[in-house]
Write a structure and sequence with these properties.
Helix 2 runs antiparallel to helix 3. Strand 1 and strand 2 (about 80-85) form a beta hairpin. The protein is built from five helices and two strands, in the order H-H-E-E-H-H-H. The longest helix has about 35 residues, at about 25-60. Helix content is about 70%, strand content about 5%. The chain has one domain. With about 210 residues, the chain is mostly helical.
Length: about 210
Amino acid sequence: MASVETTALEKIEAPAPATGAPKAPPPETKAAASITNNFAVIDVVLRVLLFASALVAVLVMVTSKQTELVQIPFPPFRAPLAAKFNQSPAFIYLVAAFSVAGFYSIITTLLSVYALLKPDCSTKLLSHLVIFDVLLLGIVASATGAAGAVAYIGLKGNSHVGWQKVCDNYDMFCKHIGSSIAISLFGSVVLVLLVLLSIYSLSKKIPK
């Protein structure tokens, strides 16, 4: 009689068999994954914008050429003189810097797409990309600043040292230069946003 009661108690206290159905992830995990994917998509878009701005800035700069008749101190007193971007080291520096930026943006866009498809490697990839993004930002920002300073001298001149402005004669050339510098400034802002986005994304991955 006692053995029958013990068996009955064991049956009652026996745990229910596991159903084998996977548990749904908590809402916090889903939200974090969604935010990470959104950051990855924005990162890809910004890198495409960086490539577009670098390409346009270089193309506008290298096509800046204009030939005008200028006064000379001997007969025939006017002679054709061409203005080209490669006559200024600052403009050459701008072309070189944004050529590197364009090539860099192609590689990093592909890496960002890869990180979007495989989120497991995104943290390590972001930590490397943010370093190179900061380095490239320093290069393109200095190139934009140097080209902008030379362009300002060409536009306004400097009466204190006798530098004459040239944009009165070479208006189309100066428009090309100004447009290229404006697009370069936009590319620099895109890089700033990329750096901030990468740092913010990394901060979200730090366990609390």
